[in-house]
């Protein structure tokens, strides 16, 4: 019989897969549906993240999907998205795979997790600058995804965490840059 953890991860994967499909992120949806039977534990879902490097663009669809699998997995995935977004050339693919939406959702949903907040805000900052889809990301983050509110909540929730403060301020600045709604 399957463990409760495996069923929980599968349920989260299918729920987010359906949501990503509705939003037109078919690659992320397909990846979540296909990979969900393999998620028997947090370790099974995240083992490949251990050696992830900024140049590992082939892993983007799977990494983005992991943002939907609960706080522990999402924290590791947020660090991985931030790592991948360090390369400006990876940012369009991260965006096209639903990275902006899922990072923003994870930041909003897991406000008390400082590691996720720092990595998530760092990823949002990078996704809003330095590539061809940055302007659309800034607009979406502010106007559609509640990004400014989530970033402000991170600042309030972690007033003494220098990493969260630095990355959240950077994300807010990047989201507001050249953005009339910002």
Keywords:
182 residues, 11 helices, 68% helix, ARM-type_fold, Protein unc-45 homolog B, mainly alpha, 0% strand, repeat
In the predicted model, the low-confidence regions spanning at least 5 consecutive residues are none
- Helix content class: 55-70%
**What is the structural class?**
mainly alpha
Overall 3D shape: globular
InterPro entries: ARM-like, ARM-type_fold
Keywords: Repeat
Protein name: Protein unc-45 homolog B
Describe the structure.
The chain is mostly helical. It has one domain (4-176). It is 68% helix and 0% strand. It is built from eleven helices and no strands. It has helices at residues 4-22, 26-35, 42-46, 60-66, 70-85, 91-96, 99-109, 114-127, 134-143, 147-157, 162-176.
């Amino acid at each position: 019989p399957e463990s409760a953890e495996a069923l929980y991860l599968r349920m989260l994967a299918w729920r987010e897969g359906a949501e990503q499909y509705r939003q037109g992120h078919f690659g992320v949806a397909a990846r979540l549906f296909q990979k969900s039977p393999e998620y028997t534990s947090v370790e099974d879902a995240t083992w490949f993240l251990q050696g992830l490097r900024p140049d590992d663009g082939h892993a983007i669809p799977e990494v983005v999907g992991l943002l939907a699998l609960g706080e522990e997995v999402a924290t590791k995935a947020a660090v991985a998205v931030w790592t991948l977004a360090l390369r400006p050339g990876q940012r369009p693919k991260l965006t096209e795979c639903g990275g902006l939406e899922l990072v923003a959702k994870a930041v909003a949903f897991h406000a008390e997790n400082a590691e996720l907040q720092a990595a998530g805000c760092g990823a949002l900052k990078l996704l809003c600058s330095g590539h061809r889809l940055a302007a659309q990301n800034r607009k979406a983050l502010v106007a559609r995804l509640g990004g400014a509110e989530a970033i402000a909540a991170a600042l309030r929730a972690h007033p003494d965490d220098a990493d969260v403060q630095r990355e959240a301020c950077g994300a807010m600045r990047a989201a507001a840059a050249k953005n009339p709604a910002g």
